[in-house]
Amino acid sequence: GLCYLLIISFLLFQDIDVVRQWLKNLDPSLGKPLPEREYAVDCRLYTPELPCKWNNFKNVLFDEFVFFHFIGWWARAMVCRDVGLTWFNSILFEFMELTFQHILPNFQECWWDHIILDVFGCNWIGIWLASKTLRYFELKEYNFSGVSEMKNAKGKVYRVIGQFTPKSWTRFHWGMFTHWKRFIYVSILILFFQLLDLNSFFLKAELWLKPSHYLNYLRVAILALQAPLVFRQCYQYIIDKNTKDIGSGTWILGLTLLLESVLCFKWGYPMYKDIPTPPLVKWGWIIAISSVVIGATVFFIYKEHHYAVVRSKTPQIEKDD
């Protein structure tokens, strides 16, 4: 993770055309613009004139990346360990796709792709399966014996693999609405959750990388290996008042995602600056963010006032008893 952070820091001072040419040293097929593709051209769910009446749906359903989409949300839920928070992030990312589809053509999807295949398809199934996986591991007995104490090869293999998994799989209860500080902390966590995926799409587009290129998988692997530690550190910092330091792993991953975002903006601004933002997107986010800020402020002020009233009455009740 630290090495990747240093690479991103170095790339911040490089021109995108130079970086594209550097990538040709890793793969001679890189450094060339990707062929243009059309997205969401025919959004009909039912195509009676074709031999396969559900041709459009079938083509998307059997796309090579559907499986990785499902696995991705299973992994996110396993790391986050909170079904509600992961589910919210999955829905929020669909809005991110709608927000940036005028910039990134591959964000253009049909309505049934967003709703049926993404939100209630790959996302929901992956998150649901992760909740079952977590429940299984929560109830599972662990054996922390050393490898040398294992009597058979199978046990030794499982023990070695287990060395790289979390010590426990306890579910996280983030309690986002229990206190205004927690609300802010979890909101920041959600923001970085979105940056993790958004940066991936912008970097692919700006560096002319095919979605299936190994560099994309390498980036995902580097960040994914850091995620379990980071979420554990964040959770401990949020719920435990005695924890004063959020942890070096969180700082490294957070700074990496921030610098990636700066890099995407630096490289992408000349490419996207002349593309107008749709009014619906602009005003939609202004209204949404304003509503969240105002709503959260009113909610926590009322909650603090309510607790203050309850605390003020408690001594009187005890005195009467």
TrEMBL record:
<keyword id="KW-0444">Lipid biosynthesis</keyword>
<feature type="transmembrane region" description="Helical">
    <location>
        <begin position="281"/>
        <end position="302"/>
    </location>
</feature>
<dbReference type="InterPro" id="IPR004277">
    <property type="entry name" value="PSS"/>
</dbReference>
<keyword id="KW-0594">Phospholipid biosynthesis</keyword>
<dbReference type="GO" id="GO:0005789">
    <property type="term" value="C:endoplasmic reticulum membrane"/>
</dbReference>
<feature type="signal peptide">
    <location>
        <begin position="1"/>
        <end position="21"/>
    </location>
</feature>
<dbReference type="GO" id="GO:0006659">
    <property type="term" value="P:phosphatidylserine biosynthetic process"/>
</dbReference>
<comment type="pathway">
    <text>Phospholipid metabolism.</text>
</comment>
<feature type="transmembrane region" description="Helical">
    <location>
        <begin position="251"/>
        <end position="269"/>
    </location>
</feature>
<keyword id="KW-0732">Signal</keyword>
<keyword id="KW-0443">Lipid metabolism</keyword>
<dbReference type="Pfam" id="PF03034">
    <property type="entry name" value="PSS"/>
</dbReference>
<keyword id="KW-1133">Transmembrane helix</keyword>
<dbReference type="GO" id="GO:0106245">
    <property type="term" value="F:L-serine-phosphatidylethanolamine phosphatidyltransferase activity"/>
</dbReference>
<comment type="pathway">
    <text>Lipid metabolism.</text>
</comment>
<keyword id="KW-0812">Transmembrane</keyword>
<feature type="transmembrane region" description="Helical">
    <location>
        <begin position="214"/>
        <end position="231"/>
    </location>
</feature>
<keyword id="KW-1208">Phospholipid metabolism</keyword>
<keyword id="KW-0256">Endoplasmic reticulum</keyword>
<keyword id="KW-0808">Transferase</keyword>
<feature type="transmembrane region" description="Helical">
    <location>
        <begin position="183"/>
        <end position="202"/>
    </location>
</feature>
<keyword id="KW-0472">Membrane</keyword>
<protein>
    <submittedName>
        <fullName>Phosphatidylserine synthase, putative</fullName>
    </submittedName>
</protein>
